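AIMP2 thioredoxin-like domain-containing protein structure dump, as promised
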Amino acid sequence: MVQMKLPEYNVLEARQVKILKQIYELKQQVECLCVAVRLSDVNNPAEVLNKLNLDITADEAPIRAEIIVSANPNSPPYSILALQRLWKDTKFNVEVHRHSTVSDATTQAFEEKLLSDASKDAVHSIDVTLIWKDVSDVQLVTKVYDYPLEGEANVLRYLTRLIENYNYEKSPSVVHTIDSILDLCLRLSYEEARNVNAITSKIASYLDKKTWLLDGSNASIADVAAWSVLKRVASNRVPRELKNWYDVCEKTFLSV
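structure tokens r here:
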């Protein structure tokens, strides 16, 4: 008998991935500090740095990445459509495949919204292999992890870490809020219908008469995650306090 993962498990898994990444980053910082201390003892510090090949400027270089996303055609990863329009400096090259049990008709509406032309300002490139198949939730497979990362909110967490400009974990003022909203989105993917309203109300509490869930004039990864999960599980039950925001998301994230 196949057991479904509990929402709490997915949240815990996301936290674990986050902690492991933070440990890795701390290790890199300690290594850099140790090198800096030793530089005073050499005649040519630049030469030492070159030999060590520390990844000091990696964040400034163009990012090239490959990911595999598996999704149920009845619950599409709308966040891909949103990021294609929101991240102007990143080209998402999406190649679609489908399991033999999935018909073209069930995925056509989504695929018609995919953008094939890259923005002229695109610097980074992410190759996405999108596989339509019978899965309980969106799954991500990369060369980094040897197991699928489940949940669209967790997929978004991973993508933000690829590109420095979008890594919200580098912004202490918003990291807690975004993580809280992403956790709510994960829960919403698994909750029974009777509990949906309670979670959408919590998401709505972050809006508080603003245009977007966070302060600022632009949409964030929190808006993308919340919009996508609402569109997937509760598009006909969007609470009144989120209706205007939801309509703006539809216009922004699905623009031609």
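The longest strand covers residues 90-98.
lmk if u need the other ones
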